[in-house]
């Protein structure tokens, strides 16, 4: 299992375009990938699940990958998020 915690930097949060592109990035991997925000966890490969979270700017989220390509999945998703300026990675115990 791979897990990372992020602070959302994008002015629009993780909504519409960032959410869609994040889901598309997650769909490239066989591993189960989840997104947790405010105590609720959804499948990161589901646009409806991600959009249902309503993740605003300056919030904290966790992404977890579990499966045969979990390291590659986490690395690819982190690369996408950072390259788009959507998030910054933080320590797992950060608020």
Care to describe what's here?
The protein is α+β, with helices and mostly antiparallel strands. It has helices at 16-26, 47-53, 70-83; strands spanning 2-8, 32-37, 40-43, 60-66, 87-90. The chain has a single domain (2-90), classed as Histidine-containing Protein, Chain: A, CATH 3.30.1340. It has three helices and five strands, in the order βαββαβαβ. A five-stranded antiparallel sheet has the order 3-2-4-1-5, with helices on one face. A hairpin with a 2-residue loop joins strand 2 (32-37) and strand 3. The radius of gyration is 12 Å and the shape is globular. The two termini are 21 Å apart. This is Phosphocarrier protein HPr. Residues 1-89 form the HPr domain. Pfam families: PTS-HPr. It is found in: Cytoplasm.
Features:
95 residues, alpha+beta, Histidine-containing Protein, Chain: A, five-stranded antiparallel β-sheet, 3 helices, globular, cytoplasm, phosphotransferase system, HPr
